[in-house]
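Page 47, continued from p. 46.
Same chain as before, 356 aa.
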Amino acid sequence: MGIKTCLCPLVVLAVAVAAARAQEVRTLDLATARPYDTVTVLQGSYVIRISDQLPRAHYLISTSSMAIYDVPPITTGAKPILPEQCPLAYTSAVRALADSGTEEDVPRLLRAAVAARPVDSTGDCVATSSELAALTARITTDSVAKYRLRAGEYVRVEVTRVAREGLAERRWQLIVTTGPRGEWQVTYGFGVPMYLGGQVRYSTRPGTSGSFVITQDSRSHYVEPVPAVFFSWMTPSGSIAPAGRLSWTAGLGADLTNPTIFLGAAWTWKRNFQVAAGLSLRQEPVLLGNYSAGDVVSTNLTFDQLTEKVYRARPFVALTLRFSKDPFGSFGWLTGTGEAKPESGKGTSGGDAASP
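Result:
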């Protein structure tokens, strides 16, 4: 029996906490809000609450969202009629609240009315206390619908005070948004294309009777680091932003005379350090199709005569960091930090070529 008695309050508390988490409330306080305001929230379900309304005023409240909820206008009640029987301070405070002329006065007048309420509010004060409860309920209005906000969504709430009984028209607007769907992040570092099996080297070696033989040499250059800039699309990742986030990424090598393109997936740690992997596309020198290893030629062919450049896809890994400006000084034309300074191509002489 004693255990059940102890557990009941805990169960009630747990249910209350779960209910509070299930329904988050965002408030548009007419007493302190700017005419047009926007707040950014995490993804979740929200109820929009309008507080500190004038009890004797009429309001039109409309809400809209990307889901297009059809919420009809809501109007509040008219000026109440207060009874005359009750302590003067209490009835005066409630009457002042009912007759308040600006939304900015509502919080102060409500606190004064609550403070003036007698300890025993029964008897002659029952009607006044009921009226205070009705005024308190009329001061705050919750939205009819509950809105589930995901990345890139918003709810717009527009409140209009109708001009009547000496009150001028007044408008408020509140936008509750989770922010943009994502953002581009620029990082700089090195992309490393991997040549599985290595690159095959070719050269022309002297043969017999003044001829030359196209010879395949040993394999080399299994990896080739390339300075590069990477662009990653970072999207919101739920109610709590983790330290590490996955995203798609694309990169461009710094050598614009022989550009390298990177496409893949990236893992970013605290927006500053990034590891990426995927496929790279780059021109590579390969042996011309009309030649093969062991062919005998009459002349010692140059590099350009022996090879051609062909785009090849290679797997890559990359390590990049987020900098405030381009550390390589090669991507100003792309990132808006200055003019690009591509290195001029370097010619190669001799009779050897590389082919993967």
